[in-house]
Amino acid sequence: MKKLSENTYSHKGYTIIKTESTTVSVMNWNRLRSVIQHVYKIENMKNEGTLPFITSLAEAKQYIDKQLSNEEL
Prior knowledge:
The chain is built from one helix and four strands, in the order E-E-E-E-H. The chain is α+β, with helices and mostly antiparallel strands.
């Protein structure tokens, strides 16, 4: 993954952008807590407002890899 700017990255020719949109995740580690996370979008592949929400660069990379592997079938 290549960092293009402060909130923009590239993976396999797709641009990943950390948006100002956020989502709340509820984590349960023997207690409830809410975590506000920024949502990422992938240009020409995934908008930030559609499920599943991508909340990390690792998830964005996995999403791209999965979409590309499905295209090869």
